Amino acid sequence: MSSFEPKIVGFLCKWCSYAGADLAGTNRLKYPSNVSSIRVNCSGRIDPTLVMKALALGADGVLIAGCHPGDCHYTNGNIKTLRRFKLLQKMLDQFGIERERVRLEWISAAEGERYAQVVRSMTEQIRLLGPLNWKHEVEVTA
Amino acid sequence: MHFLEVLRDRIGFERVEKAVKAPLKGLRVGAYYGCLLLRPPGEMKLDDPNRPSVMEDLLTRLGCTPIDYPARTQCCGSYLNISTLESEPLARGIIESARNSGAKVLAVSCPLCKYNLETGRNGSAAEDYMPIVYFTQLLGLALGLDPQQLQLDAQKMQSIRETQPVEVA
Amino acid sequence: MGTTPPKRVGVFVCHCGLNIAGTVSINEVVERAKKQAGVVFAFDHKYLCSEPGQALIKDSIKQQHLDAVVVAACSPAMHETTFKNVARSAGLNRYNCEVANIREQGSWVHDDREKATRKSHIAVRQAIEKVKLNEALEPITVPVTRKVLVVGGGIAGIRAALDVANAGYEVYLVEKSGTIGGRMAQLSETFPTLDCSTCILGPLMVEVYRHPKIKLFRLSKVEEVKGYIGNFKVTVRQEPSYVDVAKCNACGECAKVCPAEVPNEFDMGLTWRKAIYTPFAQAVPPAYVLDSKNCLGLLPQACGECEKACDKYGTSCINLDAWPEVHEFEVGAIIAATGYDLYNAANLTEYGYGTHPDIMTSLEFERMLSASGPTSGEIRCPSDGHTPRDIVFIQCAGQREPETALPYCSKICCMYTARHAMMFHHKVPEGQAYVFYMDIRAGGKGYEEFVKRCQEEKGLLYLRGRVAKVYEENGKLIVKGVDTLSGKTVEINADLVVLAVGMVPSAETHELATKLKASLDVYGFFAEAHPKLRPLESPTAGIYIAGAGHAPKDIPDTVAQASGAASKALDLLSSPTLEREPTVAKVTGELCSGCGICIPLCPYTALTLNATTKVAEVSAALCEGCGTCIASCPSGALSLRNLTDEQILAMVEAIVAS
Fold first, then answer.
1. Closest partner residue to C126 among A38, A54, A75, by Cβ?
2. C472 contacts in chain B (CB < 8 Å)
3. Choosing a second label site near C478 at 20 to 30 A (CA), which of C26, C154, C334, C442?
4. Could you say which residues from 331 to 360 on chain C have a Cβ atom under 8 Å away from some Cβ of chain B?
5. DSSP string covering C112-153, please?
6. How distant, in Å, are the alpha carbons of A124, C198, C408 from that of A118?
């Protein structure tokens, strides 16, 4: 379905990846509009259940973007995210959700082009996977 | 992959050394790298672009005595030599440099280098003669192959045999 | 669900000239906003950050009785503070203002008008949902310790320490070596005035040493830093010098008998020093230091000759039974001035550094130029001591070379090379200096005139071109390069070759940055908070930066930056209290099961488990608001103020609703 427009939620950390996304804008790079970002202080804020709920509420994909290991403004929040992400992937497998729908990326404040690339590739990948349509199957109790 | 890489990384110089049947008895060889083998370093990733050693390492295993000389990574003139004479001094300079450092044979890995070095020397005089061979020809010799099979002409073979130091019993 | 009436939200959409309006349909965004639940007013403006724009917001808040505002404009990173202050000036709490990014992540990155507008709707909706749930928080006030730590005793650290101390505050100055002075002390002269470096540095060093408000810890390193801006707890480990500073008169008898010899770092390895030594003649404090790493052994004592030699004259300054000391103290601000090292010239295989003693780095040549150096200021070839006739200086050695070495320019090399070449001619009038350069960067005050003077007066030969190779042939050094202005290759028989290698951050820079949680840039220098507008502070609050540890620079810029950093620190210290962001973690006691999972996760040790109530507690002053603990809490007892799970999910719903 080439007309399918994925809805992707992006959790971007304020110090690195959100700034990187802004840099992509300052540089006037172009990328698809399918990822809407939510600014968090640190990628470590992201509880895997938030990701699952996002998918359940209707997201076709979730992007978590944080600082490169070693660069976290809060020392090692991103490392904790990485640990949780590994477990999250196992959960996704158990739910039968394709792993490609949830991505963890390290994007620094200087990597505008990289952010644009991630958005482009993730949008296309999820477009090929098709809509998740979980909302219609599961009732969400927040 | 370059054949040198295959020999070094896939086969390993140890195995090459084990296969040597006729070691080259301390033949004083100058390895000539030219430039395209090593540069750009980020792309070629063969060896240190300024102080490479892969050919010398191989030649040592074949029983040669590699000679270090300053011009071994210098450009030979490349394609310029086919259409103009202006780059001839480069080739001559390389041979001079090798000769001054004591090399008796130059080993190359590229046919264009070989062409340039062979054509570039102004020597018709016998003492100017510097045999230019492919490193693979030396490899073949060391492995016991026939010089004719290796396309080593009589003049080159004579030079090689003459310049090998006499073995002291 | 209480009886609090829902917030009356106003939405303001900025055109930003054509930056947003050129791609996003502002009208549609405004109309769509009006339809969102809770929005009672929506308007647009060409430039909301301007005075009239801000006035519009302020007036609308009053006239429409708004409880909260959403500003759809550029990134919050740009003007969030501006708009929050506008809200406050109109009587709203700062957290009743949210910014929706419809420029950097909207109009600037999407060409398609419809898609860009739709994304803007989403961004606005998200912000509306968030602001509706925001608590009206007030900043947290914490006390400020009115003392400053300066790390690094070079010219940057010295200047910063003096400025803070002269303003009346206590300074702790931590220096790794046995003396302050840093790289500037190694210099012979300074461009463009040719002042004797030690002559102008010396008085400052003495001033630091004598200052009643400066406490100098030499042979010291910062071991740990805890706390936050205004309230840092610092632990410093000081190695013993084994010499009583008050008694030592630097007679040198101890060094005479010391059997252990090592390369002298101050002379860049060109000379040797004993294990007991004085770093240089004008060292401050002017006492000897025992380098225990290179001493034959203290545990057990292998030698002890120095102690005996010192006792011989009845002074006994040396005590070999000394131990490292740990100092703990509190400061409000920290200034990092850790300086530079030189790029490892051995990496530049084309120049052959390390293969021949007459190929040297600029700092080595500097030591040779210096009257206190290895040759008492005479230019000699290290190989055999003869006076060089032909000397080649290679600028941009391993710099401006993204492929193989450093991509950046170190700013000072064109200047000091001109000085070096000029000094060479002065000392060896019959000699000839050649300088290979790509460009001449002489941008400071008096710099261009200085370089021109060197070139014209002294007959230096400047060759615009690079050097391909430096090698030895028949006992001579050949420098093979090119002169692009004449189009000819050049071969020079050089007696001495000097490489102007680049400045890299000192090893201590990385160590300190980890301890301070201060960011480093891609080259390992201290990162500034903003490259244009905030060059004196680290993004980490309370940490200020100065000198070459921030970026390659010359002495005037270093001094200026040091004074600037001191000024920033003094600004912090000017008030006895400080306001901290209140968007911190919060524990809902009734939900906490006391599992303790959150406690070890906090990098700031802001979480503790109350032994009596068995409930987690957050220190609001220590909490930086990262949210890692919130994500770990199994019972949902932890929440992050003004970024709760409820708010995040409301924003997610705003995104995925069709």
1. A38
2. 70
3. C442
4. 349-350
5. -HHHHHHHHHHHHHHHHHHHHH-----PEEEE---EEEEE--
6. 10, 54, 28
Determine contact: A78 vs chain C, CB below 8 A: no
For residue B120, pLDDT beyond 90: no
The top-level CATH class assigned to B3-163 is: alpha beta
Q: For C273-301, what is each residue's pLDDT tens digit?
A: 999 999 998 999 999 999 999 999 998 88
**DSSP label at residue A67:** P
B41 CB neighbours in chain C (<8 A) are: 403-404
Which chain C residue is nearest to residue A19, measuring alpha carbons? C77
Q: Is C478 on the interface with B (CB under 8 A)?
A: yes
* C283-298 CB burial, b ≥16 within 10 A, e <16: bbbebbbbbbebbeeb
B and A adjacent (3 or more CB pairs under 8 angstroms) = no
Give CATH for domain C343-504. Answer: 3.50.50.60
B42, B48, B100 member nearest C403 (Cβ): B42
Structure tokens at C110: 């999407």
**Cβ–Cβ below 8 Å for C653 and A57:** yes
* Residue C63 neighbours by CB under 8 Å, 6+ apart: none
Show residues of chain C in contact with A47, CB under 8 Å: 630-632, 645
pLDDT, position C658: 62
Domain residue spans of chain C: 9-138, 147-239+325-339+506-573, 253-311, 343-504, 584-640
Lowest average pLDDT, out of A113-122, B105-114, C48-57, C203-212, goes to: B105-114
Predicted local distance difference test score (pLDDT) of residue C2: 54
Among partner residues A44, A48, A84, which is closest to C627 by beta-carbon distance?
A44
Q: Name every chain B residue with its beta carbon within 8 A of the beta carbon of C403.
A: 40-42
pLDDT digits (tens, 9 = 90+) for C384-431: 999 999 999 999 999 999 988 999 999 999 999 999 999 999 999 999
Query: Spelled out in words, what is the top-level CATH class assigned to the domain C9-138?
Result: alpha beta
CATH no. for C584-640: 3.30.70.20
- Residues in chain C with CB shorter than 8 Å from the CB of B100 are 473-474
Question: What gap in Å lies between CA C340 and CA B71, rounded to an integer?
Answer: 36
Length of chain C: 658
Distance CA C394, CA C480 (A): 11
Domain coordinates of chain B in residue numbers? 3-163
CATH architecture for residues C147-239+325-339+506-573: 3-Layer(bba) Sandwich (3.50)
How far apart, in whole angstroms, are the C-alpha atoms of residue C136 and residue C92? 9
Which one-letter amino acid corresponds to residue C570?
Answer: L
What pTM value is reported for the model?
0.80
Which residues 523-552 of C have a C-beta within 8 angstroms of A?
A: 539-540
Residue C522 forms contact with A (CB below 8 Å): yes
CATH T-level fold of A8-130: Rossmann fold (3.40.50)
In sequence order, the 6+-apart residues with CB closer than 8 A to the CB of C50 are none
Angle between helices C51-63 and C76-89 (to 10 degrees): 50
Tokens of B65: 């005595």
**Confidence (pLDDT) at A1:** 47
A contacts of C522 (beta carbons < 8 Å): 110
C349·B48 Cβ contact <8 A: yes
Contact A36 C126 (CB under 8 A): yes
Where b means 16+ CB within 10 Å and e means fewer, B99-129 reads: bebebbbbbbbbebbbbbbeebbeeeeeeee
Distance CA B38, CA B40 (A): 6
pLDDT digits (tens, 9 = 90+) for B62-91: 999 999 998 999 888 888 877 777 777 888
Which chain C residue has the Cα nearest residue B51? C349
**C147-239+325-339+506-573 and C584-640 in the same fold:** no
Note the pLDDT tens digit of each residue in C312-321. Answer: 767 689 999 9
